[in-house]
Protein 1
Amino acid sequence: MLSYQFDAPFVFAEVNSDVHKYKLNPQTGKTELLSVDTTYVGRKVVTKSIGGNNYEPMDITETYKYPEGSDKDKETMKKAERTNKLRMQDDDEQEIPQANVEMTLETPVEPVMIGHDFQMAVVFRNLSEDTRTIHGFLVGSTVYYTNIQRAQFKQESFDITLNPMETSRVEVVVLAQKYMPQLGCLSNLRFVVTAKSMENNQDMTAMQIVNLEGPELLFSIVVNGLSLFEQMSGPAQVNQEVFVKVEFTNPFPFSLRDVRMAMQGPNFMSYREKLYSEIATGASISWMESCVPTRSVKTMIYAVLDCSVLGNVQGNWAICIQA
């Protein structure tokens, strides 16, 4: 398949690319290869599950690639390098330096809500029998979904001494008051750490993305003045007026201005939009729209909320319309 032009090599690269990390020498302009990460790209490929109303994601990674590190994977990569000349020539001439110290960047396991503080850690592991003195520098930035930087919000340097075979952690606190002014309608934070072992001039680098989760939108469906949870006669009916209510509470210590909300339901409700000039701190809004379904269908209602300082607020609700 890789012999075909255009899409085949592109898709292969999208799920099999390696991440090469370099150090630039400002005096000579030359680069030095620090490390190669073969697992960062293509960890998981997902799609919508089969079935009109099954909204769980389906993992289809093995449809596009062999398991990472398997014999088939190694064989495929060698063939790709031969036929498509994927390997950079400069890299063939460089050897990756032997690591005496390993560095990893640990991000929160649990989801981080927009507007909340959280903690991270830079973890160092000394693999040598000698003491190592580490000087490090961390940069935090808000980024677009393409990983392009929008703005920096955090810079922090640190020094640590590692005894032989010791593992040590540098705790990093990320404050919402620092990243929120630079976040805008985005929801991704990128952290890059660079460090040097002073005794043997070993350079290290690590990067992680933290995806922030927005506050919830609450849904309720009302038929004949009763919520469907209270209605004993079952779901909504064709040709019967249905009200959809979406609620939101501002959890942030600042007002949201020029807020746009929208909702839509395929085969159920046409696109609707509503604007709010301001939602004060702690204030709640409730928006109700009506429609008369004309088809018997199982579908979803989707709603989104956004403004200049907040994005990634969305929700959905399943609804069944009976004949």
Protein 2
Amino acid sequence: AYCQDNEVSWFDWDFDDAAWSLLEYTREVIGVFKSNPILRRRNFLTGRPSGGGNPDVTWVRPDGTEMIEEDWRNPETRTLGMLLQGRAADDVDERGRIVFGETVLLLLNGGTRSRLYTLPRMDRAGVWEELLNTAHPGPRLVKQQTVNLTAHSTILLRHNQDLET
């Protein structure tokens, strides 16, 4: 409300617990995006190899395999996985060196039921770490090859090559 110095434009800065919780979660999300260059791309994703020879994006089905054309056309599809390879960077720093990020997997469930999602096989050893989960707060290591993707939720995972199962 432009030029309104009354209740229309006033904002109540006295947060309740839910508002503080949302603020903390928002800070956490911003921190994750700031810390990983692969989540701050300057160019559109193409699905073609770039940087380290890996495709910049792979769309993943719940069984952990790459999506095919039929999956995109299926009106019953309610889940989607997006694998971004950290070595498939297209960004450079101020000296012209390629800026690599961490490999991340974003899982989305737009359905009304939970869905078991198989994590994709990676070329390098490591452990998947849950960075963000809209259904369950706090980061955690994923010890199985599957994650439970709660209805109407999003999970962001990082493939940590410094840790092994």
Protein 3
Amino acid sequence: DEGAISALTDLLDRPQCRRGFVLEGFPTTAMQAKRLQETLERQGKPTLGDVVFLDAEEGALLERCRGRMLHEASGRLYHEQFKPPAEGCVDDFTGEPLTRTSHDQADFQSKCNKFREDAGLLKEFFKRTGLSTHEVNA
């Protein structure tokens, strides 16, 4: 956590972050949020403002996960339904094979449960600290 927060605060020194910033995927726990907020305050950087939580039905999430394909060298993501590669199961730019990520139901359910638990604690933390939170059905 400390390494991620340190790297993030270094990025916030860049000119493009002077007027604000958007974080996606971090923090994921209340402890990370607390440490991040304390670090930003201590360094005199802009602190967290509005917080947006994206939510979706588990069935839709599972469908999105099951169709996912990855070009490992670049990190490019494809999806068989929502963003298919131009030809077969190969990367559009290199022609290299894509890897399908495996998602079994039990593993997926476990990750969803952990995420919802952490998100609930994170929402409570933000509300206690007076931050404006918004939930969006994604």
Protein 4
Amino acid sequence: MFGASQLGGLDDPNARAEMAVSANLNTIRIVNFLDEKGALATAPYESWRWQRVDRAIASAHGRGLKVILDLSTYRNLLSNAGLNPYTHDWGAFISFVANRRNTVTGVRYADDPTIAIVAFAGEVEPVNSTANSLGVTTLQVTNFFKKAFASWQAIDPNHL
């Protein structure tokens, strides 16, 4: 897998996909697409933001690229709201994403072969550092990944 993150490229996903192709990459990581300072009840589900993700996935597909769908932006939203993202229940959000139907291709995310990997929390802050202001423990992080992966796999056994 040869890839790059699509930071700031959701407004012109075709140009970003073309850049990836011209660099002989085969994967684009879609990340940081939610309002990480937004309201917990609405920010994770804002239609216009997900339509940008839909277009990025469709653009990647059209060029034979794969996608890493990185949901760490949700983790950041929870952290910014003062919640421990590793003990918070991600069930509704995971279900929303896995069952989302791409508005460009019509393919449900859980069934989309363009999505190679779903990432849940990206880079975890060290639990023994001053960056850990929420009291996150190693056990919480480990249990989070087990639960998040199991929740995703229950809906979508097609993706890692």
